[in-house]
Each structure stands twice: as C-alpha cells, then as structure tokens.
Design goal:
There is one protein chain. With 180 residues, this protein is mainly beta. It has 2 domains: 48 residues, no CATH class; 85 residues, OB fold (Dihydrolipoamide Acetyltransferase, E2P), CATH 2.40.50.320. The chain is 14% helix and 41% strand. The chain has 2 helices and 12 strands, in the order αββββαββββββββ. The strands form 4 sheets. The chain has a 5-stranded mixed beta barrel with strand order 7-8-9-12-11. The protein has a two-stranded antiparallel sheet with strand order 1-2. Strands 3-4 form a two-stranded antiparallel ribbon. A hairpin with a 2-residue loop joins strand 9 and strand 10.
Length: 180
C-alpha cells in the first residue's frame, strides 16, 4: 500500500512538472563568444550579457541596443511578447498621487533655469497653475504629428508650441506632449 502511494505521488509530481514546461521547451545550442562590441551612433554600448554568434548570426541583448537608439522596450509576460516603441513614453497622470495634467501654449522659455511659462487653456478637468513651471531633469518630451511620435529635447521647445504637461506633486513637469 505504501509503495503504491509513493508511486502515485511521484507520478503526480512528474505530471505537474511536465505541465509547467508545456508552454515552451529548452534547447541546448553551441554559440561562439568573440568579445563582440556594440556601437550605436558612435557610442559604445555596455551590456550585462555577452553578445554571441550562433548559426552565422550575431545575437545581442535587445534592451541596451534599443536604449541606445532612444527606443523603449517592454515585456508582456501574458502574451510572451517583446514590445519596442521608437520613443520613450511616460506614465499617464497619476491624480491619486497629487499629479495634475495641464494644457497650454508656451509663451516663454528659460533654457538656463529649465523653466517655461504657459498661457494655460482651462477646461472642465483643469486646475489652474502658476504660469511659470519648472522642468524635471529627467523630463520626457514627446512630439506627436499625425500617427508619428518622437522624443525631443527641452532645447527643441519653441514659444507658441501647444502642450499637454504632467506636473508631479512637487510642481515639476515630468512629461510634455507637443501635438500638431
């Protein structure tokens, strides 16, 4: 009786472990390691995983290369999918943590102090803010036109640009969207 119970338990464990790997499989491959360097626009990219050659193809870690190209990489574990955007985005406004979203037109830019002044466009969802707004050092600025989106630098902003901005709880702009 004890033997049959042990065999039954071992069988159940083996069955459960087999179903855990049912969605994929392991394959042993031989790769060639050859101190491969990665360069993006003249800048050497450092990685925490060594690039290698397999079947006459060079394999490199995606995230550091995408970061070097100014892209954003995310992993969707539910879909088993790598998602690459040609631009870095910022999270939506988090109203519950004291952030606000404002619309307006840039009327003055101080590049040295990283501030802008806006003429705010008020709607039902807006809260009035001081016209002088400080920009975070790590601000993400998106330029959107038609179905294209790209990142731009603070130095690319111009007076007259219409913006939407996320202002954090410390009253710094952490994200800007310029639309045409």
């Amino acid at each position: 009786m004890k033997k049959s119970l042990v065999f039954l338990l071992v069988g159940i464990i083996l069955l459960l472990s087999a179903t855990a790997f049912a969605g994929g499989y392991f394959k042993r491959i031989d790769v060639f390691i050859k101190d491969i360097k990665i360069e993006v626009d003249g800048i050497n990219i450092k990685t925490d995983t060594e690039p290698f050659i397999y079947n006459d193809r060079v394999f490199v870690p995606l995230r550091p290369v995408a970061d070097g190209l100014g892209c954003e990489v995310t992993w969707d574990s539910k879909e088993n999918k790598v998602i690459i955007n040609k631009y870095k985005d910022f999270p939506e406004c988090d109203y519950l943590n004291g952030e606000i979203f404002v619309y307006g037109m840039i009327t003055k830019i101080d590049h040295e102090n990283k501030t802008i002044e806006i003429e705010q466009h008020i709607d039902d969802n807006s809260r009035e803010v001081t016209p002088l707004l400080s920009i975070r050092e790590d601000v993400i600025i998106l330029l959107q036109r038609n179905d294209k989106t790209m990142n731009i630098d603070f130095s690319d902003l111009k007076c007259g640009d219409i913006l939407g901005a996320v202002i954090d709880k410390d009253n710094f702009i952490r994200g800007i969207i310029i639309s045409f």
